[in-house]
Amino acid sequence: MKFTSNRSSNCSTSSQNLKEARVKHELAKLKVKQVNEKLELEQKQRQFAEDLLLLDAKNELECSELETSFWANEVEMEGEMLDDVHVSNVGPKVKVEDESPSHADRGKEVHSGKVENKIEVNAKKPPQVNTYPLNPNAREWQGAYIPDPRENGGADPFQLCNMLNLLTSIPKPELQTFDGEPTEYWSFINNFDFNIGSKLFDDRAKLTYLVQYCRGAARKSIEGCVVMGSTEGYKKAREILSDQFGQPHIIAQSLLSKVLERKPVKAHDGVALWEIARDMRKCEVVVEQMNYSANLNNTDTLLGIQLLLPIHLQSEWAKQAQRLIQSGVEPRFVHLTEFVERSARAANNVFGKNISKWNKPSTETYRPKGKSGNNLPRRATFATVGKEESAVRCYCCSQGHLLHVCKEFKAKTPKQRKELIRKQRLCDNCFKTNHMARGCMSENRCTVNGCKKKHHPLLHAENVSSQGSKRDGTVQNVPGKEEGDVAENTANYNATSSVRKEHQVKLCTVPVKVKGKSGKSVTNWALLNNASDVTLCNKQLIKELDLGGKQTSFELSTVNDKGIQQQGFEVSMTIESLSGDEFVDLPKVWSVDRLPISSKSIPSNNDIRGWPHLEGIELPSIGDQQVMLLIGGNVPEVFWVLDEKRGGRKDPYAIKGLLGWTLIGPTGVSRSPSKFTVNHISHVEQVENCWQSDFTDLGADSKVGESLEDKRAHKMLENSIKLVNGRYEVGLPWRYPMPYLPNNRVVAEKRLSQLKKRFQRDDNLLQLYSDVIHDYISKGYGRKVTEETDNTVDQTCKVTSDSGNSSEQLNQSPPQHSQGTQSEAEGADEAYVETIKWYLPHQPVLHSRKPGRVRVGFDCASRYKGICLNDQLLHGPDYTNNLIGVLSRFWRDSVALIADVEAMFHQVRVPENHSNVLRFLWWPGDDFSRPPVDYQMMVHLFGATSSPSCASFALKQTAKDNRESFSEEAVRTVNESFYVDDCLKSVQTKEQAVALVKELRELLHRGGFRLTKWVSNSRDVLETARG
C-alpha cells in the first residue's frame, strides 16, 4: 500500500510538471510569433524610410543630370558656332538660306555665316560632329524648325547665356512651409506651384517635395499618399490639403477669428490700430479672391469689430455708416477696413503720436504773434507716476551715505536739522520718506536724557511747553519750541503748520456746474491742473450728487512723495460752464478725502482791479469758496486757450477756456504774512472715521457706474414701463433697432421630442411638469397662441412686406439696417419686433433640497444659426443693492424682519408684441400623440439676461410712484433693504415693525408684488405678518 501510494504521488507530480511545460511551450511559441511580427513591422518601417531617402536621392540625381546635360549642350553649341564646324543630325541642326540652286553655294554660305540655327538638346547622348563633306546631289533635308532667338529682335545666344548666368546667381526664393493653419493655405499653395510645381514634370517628385514642406497636422494628413502611384498620390494629397485646410468657409472663419479675438484697442494706440487694420485687409483680400464674402458683411461681424475700436473711433464709424445708409449703400466689411486704415494712418503720423504726449507738457506755452510770452507758472499738485528705485543718497549733501552719519548734517543745530527734515518731508524718527513719526514702525526712540520720545536723537532739543489756545487754529511761536513738536506734545490734536508766503497767488480755478447721472447738479470750483494725469474730486461732492461708483484703490504721488496709497470711488460726471454754452464729460474721476487747495487761491473781481491789462474781464462768482474738483491732463479740452490777456513779467494774466475766464499768478501782498494755518484732527474724529471705514456701505453705495449700454437700457425701461391692471409692464431692452431672430421652431420641436422620451420614462416628472405649465396658464403668466394672434402677426408681416421686405426675409435674414449703433438707437422698431417668432426650448429644473418640486427652465441661450435671444437683449443696469450694505443695515437694530417676493420675475409683464419671442411648444391636453401647439409667456423669464434688471426696476418704480402715499421708512426699505427678491430689514421696536409690515404689504401690492415667507425674531410681529 505504501509503494502504491508513492507511485500515485509521483504520477500526479509528473502530470503537473507536464502541464506547466506545455504552458511554457505555448507561451514561448506566442512570444516568438509576436517578436517575428514586431521585426516584420520594424523592417517595413525601415524599408519605408529607406525608400523615402532613396526617392529624394533619385530626384536630386535626375535634376543634376538634367542640369548637367543642358549646360553641356550649351557649351557645345557655343564651341560649334565659334569654330564654324559642320553639325551632325544628332547635335544642333542648321538650315542654310536658299539663295542659289547649287548645293555647293549653300555649303559656302555655311562658312560665310549665313545660317539659321535650330538647336535641339538631347539629354541622352552628347552631340557628335560630322566631318564628312556635304553631298551636292543629295535631296535637301530639313529637320524640325526651331526659330532663332535673334529673329523678331530677340537676343543672341551670348545674351541668353548671360541671362542664364544671372538667373543662377540671384538668391533662390525661400520655399514656404505649411503647418495646417488655414489662413496660410493659399499662400503656401501658390508658393509651391510657382517654385516647385511649375518646374517639375514628375508627380512623384512633386509629392515628395509637398510632404517635405508640410509640417504638423498638414504632413500627417498626406504622409500615407507616398505609397500610392505617383500621379494618383500627388492628386490625392492635394485633395486632402484642400479639403481639410483650404475650404473657403474654414479660411474665412479663421481670418475673422484673428480679427475679432483680440483685446480692445486703447485710445491713441497707433500700433494696435495698425495690427487690426492689417489683419482686416488680409482677411478682405483673401476672402475676396476666394469669392466667399458671406460672413464678412454680417452685421454681428461689423458690430464686433466696432467694439474693438476706441470710443471716439466707434462714434466716427457710426457717423460714416449713417452717411452710407443715407446714400443708399449698405455698410460693408471693406468700408470698415478702409475706415480703420485711415484711422491707423492718422494715429501713426507725427501729429497723431503727439496726442498721447499730453502728460509730458512742453516748456513753451501759447504765444500770440508779436508778443513775447511769459512762462506759465508751474503747478504740481497731484501726479500719478511709476515708482523708481534709486541708490542711497544723503538728503543733506547728496553723497552716497545715510543722513544720520552725514558730518555736514551733524554740524547743524537741532533747529536747522529739523528744518531740513521738514523740507525733505522725512520721518522724524527714522529719516525715511512716505510716513510720519507717529506712524513709524521703527522701534528706535530718543535716548537723550531719558527722553524716550519718537524722534531721532539728532533732533532732540530742550522744549518749553507751548502756551496759548489750541482750538483757535493758531499756534504762537515760543522760544526754543520747534514747529514739529506741536504734534508730539498736543494731546488732542495732530497739527501740521505752514507759513503763508509774501504774495497771494491765484491758481487756474473756474466755477462749474457739476451734474451726475442721477440728475442732481451742484455748482463748485474746479482747479485745472495740467501737471496731474488724473481727475480727482472731494468725496463730499459724490454724496451731494448721489453718485454710485466702483470702489478702487490707487496711488497718488506729489512733488516730494513717491506714492501714497489711497482708497476711494471711481465715478463719472459732466461739468458745464456757468453760461451753459459748453459741456465736458469726465468719464473717470477718483474721489479723495479732501483736496488741499486753499480758498485764497480762487480769483475774484477784486483781484483784477488795479491791473490795466485785465480791464474788461468779469470773473463769475458763486457762494461756495471751496475747490471740490481737480481736473487733470486726461481731459485736455479744458486747457484750450481761446483768448488771453497778459501784462508784464511777474504780472497776473487771464485766460479764457471752454469753461470761462480765470486768473493766474500773484495779485498782491498779503496783509498778514506771519499767520500760521493749522490743520487739526481730533481723536474723536479719528475714531469716527475708523468706524465709518468699516461700514463704508452705510454711506456711499459702491455700485459700478453705468456703461453706455446700461444708459441705453435704462432709458428704454423708463420709456416702456407702465401699470396695466395692477401690474407693471416693462418692454424687453433690445440691443439693436431691428433684432435678428430667425424662426427656430425646428429647434424647439427637437428639444421637445427629447423631453418626451424623458417623460415616458418618468410619469411622476410628467405630472409635476404639466402642473407647472397649467399653473402658468391659469395665473396669466402664459397663454395659448390662438389663430387670431397668429393672424395679427401675419397681417403685420404683410404690411411690412408691402413696404419693401417680405416676412420671410425679415425673419430669416439679418435686417439691412440692423447695424445701427448703440449710441444712436434708443429701442427696437416695435412694428418689426411684432413680426418675429422665436421659440424657447424648455426643460425641468430640479432642486436636491426641494423634492417633489419642479421649475420650468426656459433656455434663452439656445442658439439657432449662431443666434440666441440673450444675444439680442441688453443686460441692463444693475439695480441690485450691495449685499454688504444690506446686511450692515440689517444688523443695526434689534427687531428683525425677513420676507420674500413671490415669483418676482413673473409679476412683471412684457408687452404683447414682445411675447412673440417668448413662444414655447407643448402638447394639448398633455397628449403625446397629438402634435405640439404654440404657447407664449407674457412675463419676464428666469434665464433671460435682462430679467433681473427689469424686475428690480419695476420694484423700485413701485416705491417711486407711491412715495407720497406711504412713509419715508417704507419707501427707503424698498430702495435700500431688498437684495433681489429678499427683504432684510431691522427696526428698533415691535410697534415700528408691525406698522412697517402693513405698509410694505400695501405698497408692493400696488405694483403687483406679494411678500411671503415672513420671518422675525418677534412673535407679535410674525403673527401680524402672517395674519
Automatic annotation (TrEMBL):
Low complexity: bias regions: 1-15
Origin superkingdom: Eukaryota
InterPro entries noted in UniProt: DNA/RNA_pol_sf (IPR043502), DUF1759 (IPR005312)
Region (Disordered): 1-20, 95-114, 796-826
Bias type Polar residues, positions: 796-824
A matching Pfam family: DUF1759
Record's protein name: Peptidase aspartic putative domain-containing protein
